[in-house]
């Protein structure tokens, strides 16, 4: 009788509760060797390749592309080949996870004891790997496959190319222009193999003229050149990716539940935990920018003012442990900068902001945003900040109650700039002002400390340069 081993999804990060299948790198029924790449999984922090823990035949996959698998739940079953190398059972690999003891969000146990994982449309897929109906396919994060359909909202936002995050990362690493790669996946999805072939042939080098191709669907699928490829580009005149369809064009069936994936899933958890743990209080005021000289960078000035306030009132540049009632004041200033994306909210850390000049701060902001947008940012750079900044006013809104994410103590929100009439000696003047909202954890800081902190921000923003 064949020796069957079940592989349970390991923790792919720092206590991450689940991960989403991006792409199986081995077909069901195929033979795989120990430590060969088995499957690409997307967490809230990165796309990682999970190696095979055994040598043998991949007997069963517990979930398809786009499915959410709970950490500790069954991911795959292997028929062990005793003739191939195997890892000793006593050797620690990080792969040996017991099945989840209790059902969590997105996973539950059926009446027959089989593990059930969440499907794209908020339903469920049994351990047998049954696929949902094609007509019910929902929206997923990125251009990941959902049963036999592909949804490319994020892919469109990065140039109109349907490709999962792992493929985009590989293309960037190999210097391949995805707009010039002929896709072979369903509905015109660029696969990893497509990128590798393009890199080997040198036919899609970055910087060359684009020759896009699209693949038709059905049994007689054939690759044809896009008729407008010679004149149409996915980039704006400024070199930035443009949307070729509205964000809601691939939003799935309206009124139907949509399973949250990746960053949006984590964002929902983080916001709920923050709301439950923080005693949030907000204070608002306006900074008068009338004295500003031409050439001031708004984001850089905000970061500089935040640093100045942290030095004046260190109580808000701190971490607070509510369970043990301990507070840690930081001598350095690492600012968590909220970055809005189609996938959800990312907060990369601008390290040692107190040591950077204006040029250094601008370079740090540009680098962080670029790495967030192409999902190349290291997981370690999405945590560990000592205070937070949200410049929501670049879109709309004057005041807000931004959410403080523990262990941080405070977050500063900057609203939309506008003009107000200010009385002066002999008449009135129109001054440009910036609305500011400071939310802080009242367990760790007093109202007086928060008010003095906001005053320090306002004073620094009032300077000409």
How far apart the termini lie comes to 78 Å
CATH topology of the largest domain: Chloramphenicol Acetyltransferase
Overall geometry comes to elongated
**pLDDT averaged over residues:** 77
Rg, Å, rounded: 25 Å
Number of domains: 3
**Residue share in β-strands:** 25-35%
Please name the fourth-level CATH homologous superfamily of the largest domain.
Answer: Chloramphenicol acetyltransferase-like domain
Query: Level of helix content?
Result: 10-25%
Record field, number of beta strands: 26
Give the secondary structure arrangement, pairings included.
Elements: E1 4-8, E2 18-24, E3 31-32, E4 37-42, E5 47-51, E6 56-61, E7 68-70, E8 74-80, E9 107-109, E10 115-118, E11 124-125, E12 145-146, E13 149-150, H1 153-157, H2 165-174, H3 192-201, E14 213-215, E15 223-225, H4 262-277, E16 280-288, H5 298-312, E17 318-321, E18 326-329, E19 335-337, E20 339-341, E21 344-346, E22 349-350, H6 358-373, E23 387-390, E24 410-414, E25 418-424, E26 427-441, H7 447-461
Parallel strand pairs: 19-23, 23-24
Antiparallel strand pairs: 1-8, 2-4, 2-7, 3-6, 4-5, 6-8, 9-10, 10-11, 12-13, 14-15, 16-26, 17-18, 19-22, 20-21, 24-26, 25-26
């Amino acid at each position: 009788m064949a020796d069957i081993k079940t592989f349970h999804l390991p923790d792919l990060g720092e206590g991450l509760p689940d991960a989403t299948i991006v792409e199986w790198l081995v077909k069901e029924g195929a033979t795989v060797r120990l430590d060969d790449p088995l499957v690409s999984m997307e967490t809230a922090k990165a796309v990682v390749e999970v190696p095979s823990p055994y040598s043998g035949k991949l007997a069963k996959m517990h979930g398809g592309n786009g499915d959410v698998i709970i950490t500790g739940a069954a991911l795959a079953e292997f028929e062990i080949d005793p003739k191939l190398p195997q890892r000793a059972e006593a050797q620690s690999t990080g792969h040996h996870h017991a099945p989840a003891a209790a059902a969590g969000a997105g996973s539950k146990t059926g009446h027959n004891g089989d593990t059930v994982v969440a499907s794209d449309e908020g339903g469920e897929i049994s351990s047998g790997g049954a696929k949902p109906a094609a007509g019910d396919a929902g929206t997923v994060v990125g251009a990941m496959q959902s049963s036999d359909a592909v949804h490319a909202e994020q892919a469109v936002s990065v140039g109109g190319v349907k490709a999962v995050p792992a493929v985009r990362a590989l293309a960037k690493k190999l210097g391949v222009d995805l707009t010039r790669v002929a896709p072979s996946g369903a509905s015109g999805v660029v696969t990893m193999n497509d990128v590798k072939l393009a890199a080997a042939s040198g036919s899609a080098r970055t910087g060359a003229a684009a020759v896009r191709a699209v693949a038709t669907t059905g049994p007689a699928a054939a690759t044809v050149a896009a008729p407008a490829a010679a004149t149409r580009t996915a980039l704006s005149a400024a070199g930035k990716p443009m949307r070729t369809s509205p964000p809601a064009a691939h939003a799935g069936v309206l009124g139907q539940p949509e399973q949250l994936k990746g960053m949006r899933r984590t964002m929902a958890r983080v916001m709920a935990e923050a709301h439950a743990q923080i005693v949030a209080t907000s204070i608002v005021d306006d900074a008068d920018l009338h004295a500003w000289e031409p050439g001031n960078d708004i984001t850089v000035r905000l970061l500089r003012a935040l640093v100045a306030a942290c030095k004046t009132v260190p109580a808000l540049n701190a971490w607070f442990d509510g369970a043990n009632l301990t507070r840690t004041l930081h001598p350095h200033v690492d600012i968590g900068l909220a970055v809005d994306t189609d996938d959800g909210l990312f907060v990369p850390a601008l390290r040692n902001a107190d040591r950077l000049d204006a040029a250094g701060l601008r370079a740090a902001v540009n680098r962080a945003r670029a790495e967030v947008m192409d999902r190349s940012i290291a997981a370690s750079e999405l945590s560990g900040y000592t205070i937070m900044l949200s410049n929501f006013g670049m879109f709309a809104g004057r005041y807000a109650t931004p959410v403080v994410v523990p262990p941080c103590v405070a977050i500063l929100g900057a609203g939309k700039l506008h003009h107000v009439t200010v009385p002066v000696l002999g008449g009135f003047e129109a001054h440009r002002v910036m609305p500011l909202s400071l939310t802080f954890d009242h367990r760790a800081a007093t109202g007086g400390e928060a008010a003095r902190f906001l005053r320090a921000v306002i004073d620094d923003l009032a300077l000409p340069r």
